[in-house]
Design a protein that fits this description.
Elements: E1 10-12, E2 15-17, E3 21-23, H1 38-47, E4 54-61, H2 83-98, E5 102-108, H3 116-121, E6 127-128, H4 138-143, E7 145-146, H5 149-168, E8 173-177, H6 183-188, H7 203-221, E9 226-230, H8 243-263, E10 271-275, E11 279-280, E12 283-284, H9 294-297, E13 304-307, H10 312-319, E14 325-329, H11 331-335, H12 339-344
Parallel strand pairs: 3-4, 3-14, 4-5, 5-8, 6-7, 8-9, 9-10, 10-13, 13-14
Antiparallel strand pairs: 1-2, 11-12
Helix pairs in contact: 1-2, 5-7, 7-8
Domain NADH:flavin oxidoreductase/NADH oxidase N-terminal: 5-349
Protein name: NADH:flavin oxidoreductase/NADH oxidase N-terminal domain-containing protein
Family: Belongs to the NADH:flavin oxidoreductase/NADH oxidase family.
Length: 374
């Protein structure tokens, strides 16, 4: 029997992989004062057990000003220039590399969806592209303000610094989180971005912040170590979606990234990671007929990670469509540390325990069983 593409080797950017099953980024809130814990070392090392697997880390704050989660602030890892943070990541990455696998750290700034009081404790403001809070956030509506242009430039530099820190810790690359209603996505969307300067108004201007981050990080560490994640169809965290605006907006972003690669192959990103319309933030969704990522896939000719609601059958089928598609798994990777082995051998999959996704300790984190090999 011919080996399906899903289990064939592929080179993604600078990383040689043995298969096309990717561990998608998964927030687990087990850090200790923004430092990845020893439990995290065990968790990631378990999921790297099939050599040559690409792991994308949980979303990771680029700077203290990029965070602001109420009730779990220090439980989210960071990747700024703190020696203990870098040391924590080094242990995680050494564990992954000891299994022969690769890791990209996902770079995160949550923007306007942060909690004002939490940010104030570290001396930072609640900011977004405009002074517009997400729907229902009455406290945020009182405090959120628009970033100034110098502050936007500073944000871009923070992404660069974080990317350099990730590589210093030994990471194989970084993924820029430009999805799911966080800061770059807030600039992309017309309902959260009412700016009238070069960062708002037109499709080109709303795309500028994400593209500036991508360009600056690529220049700093090499485009072949940079991925980016988009969610064209998400309504998560008050992102607006409609056929007339969403399609041209995201087509432009894909066109710009393909144009850069065509002009100079050294500018081709390692990959673009796109969330399928059947996934909406942390929930499943029923996509409308016009919600499809095919128009973007037809523009971008580089490697593409597709994530959102895949099972073994649909993953094999989708990866078989071309020779550049990888499939991201989230919840199945939570519950199956040996997911690649199980998928390849068509073994039963453990179901995830949702109540333990964000709770402290090893339960639902490092205590899922491996399949007993014959």
């Amino acid at each position: 029997m011919t080996t399906p593409n899903l289990f064939k080797p592929i080179k993604v950017g600078a990383s040689q992989l043995s298969n096309r099953v990717v561990m998608a980024p998964l927030t687990r809130t087990r850090a200790e004062k923004h430092v990845p814990s020893d439990l995290a070392v065990e968790y990631y090392t378990q999921r790297a057990s099939t050599a040559g697997t690409l792991i994308i880390s949980e979303a990771t704050y680029i700077h203290p000003s990029a965070g602001g989660h109420k009730g779990r602030e220090g439980l989210v890892p960071g990747i700024w220039g703190d020696a203990s943070i870098i040391a924590g990541w080094k242990k995680v990455i050494q564990g992954i590399h000891s299994k022969g696998s690769k890791i990209y750290i996902q770079l995160w700034d949550i923007g306007r969806v942060a909690n004002y009081d939490v940010l104030q404790q570290t001396g930072h403001d609640l900011v977004g592209p405009s002074a517009i809070a997400q729907a229902g956030d009455e406290d945020g509506a009182k405090h959120v303000r628009a970033l100034t242009i110098p502050e936007i430039k500073q944000k871009v530099q923070l992404y660069v610094d974080a990317a350099k820190n990730a590589l210093e810790a030994g990471a194989d690359g970084v993924e820029i989180h430009s999805a799911n209603g966080y800061l770059p996505d807030q600039f992309i969307h017309w309902n959260s971005n009412h700016r009238t300067d070069e960062y708002g108004g037109s499709i080109e201007n709303r795309s500028r912040f994400s593209l500036e981050i991508i360009d600056a990080v690529s220049a700093a560490i090499g485009a072949d170590r940079v991925g980016v994640r988009f969610s064209p169809w998400t309504t998560f965290q008050d992102m607006e979606v409609n056929e007339e605006k969403s399609l041209p907006q995201f087509k432009y972003l894909f066109e710009q990234l393909e144009k850069r690669a065509k002009e100079n192959e050294k500018n081709r990103l390692s990959y673009i990671h796109v969330i399928e319309p059947r996934a909406d933030g942390i929930s499943d969704a029923i996509p409308k007929q016009w919600q499809s990522n095919d128009p973007f896939r037809n523009i971008w000719t580089g490697d593409l990670i597709r994530a959102g609601g895949y099972n073994r059958e649909t993953a094999i089928e989708t990866a078989q469509e071309d020779d550049r598609t990888l499939i991201g798994f989230g919840r199945y990777f939570i519950a199956n540390p040996d997911l690649v082995y199980r998928l390849e051998n068509d073994l039963p999959l453990t179901h995830w325990d949702r109540p333990s996704f964000y709770t402290p300790g090893p339960h639902g984190y490092t205590d899922y069983p491996f399949h007993k090999k014959e």
